[in-house]
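Input structure tokens:
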């Protein structure tokens, strides 16, 4: 079993790899063919799935722990959740666009910048303090909760659902179920 920091670090590394690939990858503006643009769209879609799961479980379990354990936890959690909410709106808009659309690239560039800033915020400003106050058992228990919750988390961003742990825990399974049905209908679950 992995502790919370290992779980989150793995997610962050996957996001950073995807962002690096997207940053140097083919774009419509560069005259890329339709097949490569389709691959770009699939990579963005996978990023949206993973980010949606990641942010949902952080809001359910990680940020409440930060609030509870750190003296400045409310301020740190509020700032992070604000960043996450803004990202959800961007990702939600990206779902409706094709990689050939100039707005797609504009939103993707914004997400790349904001996503890297958010990861740095978590790792540099939140983790050091939390590592000092969480016991090894607490860090492992939280990591296990995150891993389990990701299995049933939403696969799409839901910026209009308030990022309140109780609401997310209650609405999450229903929203995730609806996402999975929608993914099956659209063929997204096979990508």
């Amino acid at each position: 079993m992995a502790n919370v920091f290992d779980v989150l670090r793995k997610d962050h590394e996957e996001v950073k790899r995807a962002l690096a690939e997207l940053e140097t990858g083919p774009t419509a503006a560069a005259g890329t063919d339709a097949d490569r643009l389709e691959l770009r769209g699939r990579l963005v879609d996978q990023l949206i799935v993973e980010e949606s799961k990641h942010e949902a479980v952080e809001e359910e379990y990680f940020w409440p722990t930060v609030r509870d354990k750190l003296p400045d936890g409310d301020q740190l959690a509020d700032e992070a959740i604000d960043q996450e909410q803004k990202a959800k709106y961007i990702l939600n808009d990206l779902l409706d666009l094709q990689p050939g659309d100039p707005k797609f690239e504009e939103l993707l560039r914004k997400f790349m910048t904001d996503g890297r800033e958010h990861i740095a915020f978590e790792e540099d400003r939140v983790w050091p303090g939390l590592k000092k106050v969480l016991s090894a058992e607490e860090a492992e228990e939280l990591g296990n909760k995150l891993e389990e919750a990701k299995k049933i988390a939403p696969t799409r961003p839901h910026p209009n659902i308030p990022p309140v742990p109780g609401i997310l825990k209650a609405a999450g399974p229903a929203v995730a179920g609806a996402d999975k049905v929608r993914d099956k209908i659209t063929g997204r679950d096979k990508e």
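The CA atoms of residues 40 and 99 lie 7 Å apart. The chain has a mean pLDDT of 88.
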